[in-house]
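Protocol step 4 of 5: obtain the predicted structure for the target chain.
Materials: sequence only (see below). No template structures provided, no constraints applied. The aim of this step is simply to have a reference model before the mutagenesis design in step 5. Sequence pasted as it appears in the construct record:
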Amino acid sequence: MKERILETALRLFSTYGIKSITMQEIARECGISKKTVYEHFADKTDLVDEVVAFMTQTHCKKLEECISSGRDAIEELVLSLRQIELQVKSINPILLFELEKYHPSAWKGIQEFKDSFVRKSIRENLERGIREGLFRSNMNIDIITHLRLMQIESAYNPRYFPAAQFDLHEVMVQVTQHYIHGVATPEGHRRIEQYTGVKQTA
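Step 4 output (structure tokens):
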């Protein structure tokens, strides 16, 4: 029941934002009483905190599947991008804005996810690509890891890419293509074309 409530709340928050959704609406959508929701969550803040933890854990599992199934560093990135695309399509940008502004403890959870799992994944992918000869070996990995993290953050930030002007999905595709093109060797470019069907040009 608790997971069902979390899944329902995440879907509603992702679609309509947090502020506009009440505990009563979440209960109604689950087909349960509001009292049952409060048996599992002390209040809305507690629910939001657990929704964010549920969301990041789910995202971790999906990205770990991309890492393990990618035949090389390039395919790992391509699979990860497709997973991020699915996530982006399901999230209203207002959700992240409201988390940052009104839910500091939940926002802290997202920042910790970014600073631990995401940063580690970027670095390990770069190291893998260098070992495989698909990424340039003359990069400063610390700088490029930080740069990639900043790219991802900026794509989700409505101050840099307002939803009224930019499609979040397209922004993520473009910044990722820019990133891969910048770190890849000629053999890496050939693999990009092989996996995406998009010819890489100088």
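Step 4 remarks: The longest helix spans residues 104-131. The mean pLDDT is 91.
Proceed to step 5.
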